[in-house]
Design brief:
- The protein is built from 2 helices and 5 strands; from the N terminus they run E-E-H-E-H-E-E.
- It is α+β, with helices and mostly antiparallel strands.
- The radius of gyration is 12 Å and the shape is globular.
- The protein binds FE2/S2 (inorganic) cluster (FES).
Length: about 110
C-alpha cells in the first residue's frame, strides 16, 4: 500500500492507503475524500479531479499529457503544481505523496 496525504482547501488533511495500480482519483474516491468530483470517471475529459501536487513530488508523478494540459488550461487556478488526479497512477514510488485540493472543482 502507498500512503498518500490529501489536504482539503480548508486545511483538513487525510492520509490514505492507496492500492498501487489505481489512479490517485480512484483511491481518493474509494476513501471518501471530499473535494474530488471526477465527473467523467477518469477519462481525462472533465477536469473535476484537479489537485496540486507538492513541489517535491512533481517529478515522481510524471509528465502531463497534451489532453491533461488542455483540460487544466480552462482552470483559473491552474498552477505549475496542477495535475488531474485521474492521470496519476499510484505506485510504490509515490509512498508519502502530498497533494492539496483546490477551493472548488469546475
Ligand atoms: Fe475527469 Fe479526471 S476524472 S478528468
Amino acid at each position: 500500500m502507498t500512503k498518500i496525504t490529501l489536504i482539503e482547501y480548508s486545511g483538513t488533511d487525510h492520509t490514505i492507503d492507496a492500492e498501487p495500480g489505481v489512479s490517485l482519483m480512484q483511491a481518493a474516491i474509494d476513501n471518501g475524500i471530499p473535494g474530488i468530483d471526477a465527473d467523467c470517471g477518469g477519462s481525462c475529459a472533465c477536469g473535476t479531479c484537479h489537485v496540486f501536487v507538492a513541489e517535491e513530488w512533481l517529478a515522481a508523478t510524471g509528465e502531463r499529457s497534451d489532453m491533461e494540459e488542455a483540460m487544466l488550461s480552462i482552470r483559473p487556478d491552474r498552477s505549475e503544481q496542477s495535475r488531474l488526479s485521474c492521470q496519476i497512477e499510484v505506485t510504490d514510488a509515490l509512498d508519502g505523496l502530498v497533494v492539496r485540493l483546490p477551493e472548488f472543482q469546475m
